[in-house]
User: What shape does this take?
Amino acid sequence: MTQVVAGETCDGRTTLFGEMADDVARRDPTGAAPRVAVMDGEAALWAAMRLFFGDACVGVLDLIHVLGYLWLAAHVFHPTGSAAAQAFVDERLRQLLEGRVGRVVGGLRQMLAKHALTGAKRRTLQTVITYLANNQAHMRYDVYLAAGYPIASGVIEGACRHVVQDRLEQTGMRWTRRGAQAMLHLRALYLNGDWDAFLEHRIQTEQQALYGIAI
Assistant: This one.
């Protein structure tokens, strides 16, 4: 998050991408491995990615976010929870996965023109069309799948929920940044099955530090 560091405002997004670029350079100094960024449609994220990675990184619009917009469009024409709404989403999702993004956008534009939509429904459908059209370059899901690239961040978000939220966001909890980071280190050790090895290492290092001996 953006914060003041040493009297200067530190932009969280820029800092994050800078740290990721450093990490990528350390782990893959030759640039041989493919680089894929799965993100939502926020323009500032794509600008930051281009700034730090240029054309060396494949940008993928998170399919989970796209699904959310497809459901918005479905509910313009069909009731929530209906089989018709599910079929609406299924059909367009299949087309997106087959690489026919233009067809989906064109079809929604035709529906906007042909149906007498007014007020909120018209604005909602226009929002969906604009979102898909603006992000079309990052929705080549057929190409991404063929290359074995991830197209959604569900695995990452699930890991964040399991590692972070389940431990740090319980009732009444308040954390400092330093305390939260320390707890996350312990949480990762525990979930990775390294708890006993960590305790042994801790005992050894404490003995060495306090008494100059190892047991």
